[in-house]
TrEMBL record:
SUPFAM superfamilies: P-loop containing nucleoside triphosphate hydrolases, TPR-like. It comes from the Bacteria. The keyword Transmembrane helix does not apply. This is Bacterial transcriptional activator domain-containing protein. It comes from Sphingobium xenophagum. One of its GO terms (molecular function) is protein-tyrosine sulfotransferase activity. Residues 276-334 form the Bacterial transcriptional activator domain.
Length: 696
């Protein structure tokens, strides 16, 4: 067979190739049987002995000058010997006589590409691909050549045609079936074999990347999907997948760059604009995201998910009335949309009325027959009804809905309170005063970060808003970077490199710690929109990593926002969080979590006295000026009146307290949990030592 005849454009048999070329010559000179055999022998040598193939082809041509199959083999051999110019001149002459033979057009296109003659390559391919539309390789080569001459839109469409052709490829279909059936090893073997033959096959690279992603090998997945996109920049589905992988790895600027490209696709796919909006949301650019949602809704307003997304962005921007309208539109078009109802209830300053309660109860009845499939809508509706009935002061009914919502949500999550407590104990045992002294100096010297840690619903958003009102402090959001670094370090234990947490942490050299601290500073830079010298990372769960923060960012400040254990935990239990915080959906478990948190923070206070500044929510409510002054003094910042009028500060706030911090401090929430005291026995039992000691 001629080279690559099974995967490129030589889809005819050798006999058919010769027949088609002979039929196209003028005048026809049928080759003898002996010449046919000789051409076959020369063609078989192309892949392994191209010089011998060339010699045999030239010998044939001395006996049968101009014989098209022999001319083709000679040109193929010349290209394989690194002489594409010589091959091209012979192929071009042959193509003038026989302009529509697929094997010839494919070889001509490759030779022209290798010599830099994009015009001739494009001309050959544009004759070829209509004849062989189901073979992807020609489309991809056409796309590459079109890009070289600046015909980017046509190149994009050629890539898309190549992917469409790949979707019918038997090898790829079999690999995809194997992947979906869980036969990952079979799929990997098949795709590796294909990529060995066709290293520039973007569809195979993307599919192999998805398999690695399913296996949890994110690094390999990224490399393969990036390779697919580099090979075929118009491969929209690969770029879409790559953006999602980049988001999972918190590579937000890279994700935005690819989302900007995808948004220019010639395909009219609103999903690409939505994906770009989701990247912008992650970057904190709510205004641009809202503009995208508004543009899409102007074209098609009956989209409840879009209305909900718009509501989220508007809420974060502080446009409360517009956010309420957006959420109302979402439930108007889809009354069973539980998350939209919860988004309304979660504004805290909105009170759902009797009519809303009736609609939500009816929605629950409608969802009952498909409860297993609609569990997310159902638990959101229970949380929403809990809030509505709480506002109506029907505390017993309110607790009933909160309880059902929490039980359903907890049943869908994996969380082991014993395992978590053991991890906290290991951290507590590691970061002793002696250990910190032994580790000595190290880490990045940057004083920029201000970590606000604690439990959700502890008043941390209030602290953030107060500090963000200062001229030298920028509020960002709950940043995942420290947790990503900590998770990567933990993986070294999980993979067996170290026997335990203390050994792993002790292995960090001063240079390691400096590198990790600088990595944190570099990774968080994308979230900073001003030149203010300090910025806030308000990820509450970072209380688990205060020791690590001390080692890699010794000049960072840590503020522990703390609230009465019953008030804090009950508030967290009745709050549904968009992601994470799996410990909050059971009263006993959230109580245990609070105890673990207090124990670790107390141990760190003993190991590094004064390193953490504690703000008690009740004290901040009772004496705001005094607490703000102490807070700023800890940070080494001059007092500014704007910090006392924090509700006037315009900035994006993404947490559940977004609307509460846009008004002056109020005292209503301090003891609100007492309305539910009759039903909070499991929480009170779990928190008994902390209740007795608070706020000591």
């Amino acid at each position: 067979m001629l080279r690559n005849c099974n995967i490129l454009f030589i889809v005819q048999t050798r006999k058919e190739v010769k027949a088609s070329m002979d039929a196209a010559s003028h005048p026809p000179v049928p080759p003898s049987r002996a010449l046919n055999v000789a051409v076959d022998c020369a063609a078989k040598q192309l892949d392994t002995r191209p010089a011998e193939a060339l010699a045999h082809a030239e010998e044939i041509l001395t006996k049968a000058p101009g014989l098209p199959p022999a001319e083709l083999v000679a040109a193929q051999a010349l290209r394989r010997l690194g002489q594409p110019d010589a091959a091209l001149s012979r192929l071009a002459a042959l193509a003038r006589r026989q302009p529509n033979v697929p094997a010839l057009l494919w070889e001509l296109a490759q030779a022209a590409s290798e010599t830099g003659d994009s015009a001739q390559a494009i001309a050959a391919l544009e004759r070829l691909v209509p004849q062989q539309a189901g073979v992807a390789s020609g489309w991809f080569l056409l796309a590459r050549e079109l890009r070289k001459v600046g015909r980017d839109d046509q190149a994009w469409r050629a890539d898309l045609s190549g992917i469409h052709a790949s979707s019918r490829d038997r090898d790829l279909l079999e690999a995809a079936v194997a992947m979906n059936e869980g036969r990952l090893d079979d799929a990997v073997a098949s795709l590796h074999a294909r990529l060995a033959r066709l290293p520039d096959d973007p569809a195979a690279a993307r599919l192999l990347g998805e398999i690695h992603w399913r296996r949890g090998d994110m690094s390999a997945a990224l490399i393969l999907v990036e390779r697919a996109v580099a090979t075929a920049p118009g491969f929209d589905l690969a770029r879409d997948f790559l953006i999602r992988l980049l988001l999972q790895n918190n590579r937000l600027t890279d994700a935005l760059a690819h989302a900007d490209v995808l948004a220019q696709s010639p395909l009219d796919n609103p999903g690409y604009a939505l994906l770009r909006a989701s990247v912008l949301v992650r970057l904190g650019d709510q205004a641009q995201a809202a503009a995208i949602y508004e543009g899409l809704l102007a074209q098609k307003p009956d989209q409840p998910q879009l209305w909900q997304n718009l509501g989220h962005a508007l809420k974060t921007l502080g446009r409360q009335a517009d956010a309420i309208h957006a959420y109302r539109q979402a439930v108007r078009y889809l009354p069973t949309m539980g998350e939209a109802w919860w988004s309304l209830a979660n504004l805290k300053t909105v009170k759902l009325d009797a009519a809303d309660i009736a609609v939500m109860e009816q929605a629950l009845s409608m969802l009952a027959p498909e409860a297993a499939a609609r569990s997310e809508d159902i638990f959101h509706l229970h949380f929403s009804l809990g809030k509505a009935l709480e506002d109506a002061r029907d505390y017993a009914a309110s607790f009933g809905h909160y309880d059902r919502g929490n039980r359903l949500r907890r049943s869908l999550l994996s969380y082991d309170a014993d395992e978590f407590a053991a991890e906290v104990k290991a951290t507590e045992a590691c970061f002793t005063a002696a250990f910190l002294t032994r580790m000595g100096k190290g880490g990045a010297a940057a004083p920029d970060p201000v970590f606000v840690v604690g439990l959700p619903r502890s008043g941390s958003t209030l602290v953030e808003q107060i500090l963000s009102s200062h001229s030298q402090v920028e509020g960002t959001m709950e940043l995942p970077e420290m947790m990503i670094i900590a998770s990567r370090l933990q993986s070294r234990i999980d993979e067996g490199e170290f026997p335990d947490f203390s050994t792993m942490i002790a292995s960090l050299t001063p240079a390691d710690r400096q590198r990790l601290g600088e990595e944190y500073i570099d990774r968080t830079r994308v979230h900073r929109q001003s030149d203010k010298p300090r910025f806030i990372d308000k990820m509450p769960n970072n209380w688990q990593h205060v020791g690590l923060i001390r080692l890699i960012l010794p000049n960072a400040k840590i503020i522990d926002a703390r609230r009465h254990p019953m008030g804090c935990c009950f508030s967290g239990w009745k709050q549904h969080f968009a992601r994470g915080q799996a410990f909050t959906y059971d009263l006993s478990e959230i109580g245990r979590y609070y105890r673990d948190y207090v124990a670790l923070m107390s141990a760190f206070d003993a190991a590094a006295p004064g390193h953490v500044h504690r703000v008690h929510y009740e004290h901040m409510v009772a004496d705001t000026p005094g607490e703000v002054a102490r807070l700023l003094d800890y940070l080494g910042l001059p007092f500014e009146e704007a910090c006392l009028a924090f509700w006037r500060t315009e900035r994006a706030v993404r947490t559940a307290s977004s609307e509460q911090v846009r008004q002056p401090i109020f005292t209503d929430g301090v003891d609100h949990w007492r309305h539910f005291a009759p039903w909070l026995g499991p929480l009170e039992e779990a928190l008994r030592p902390e209740i007795a000691a608070y706020p000591a």
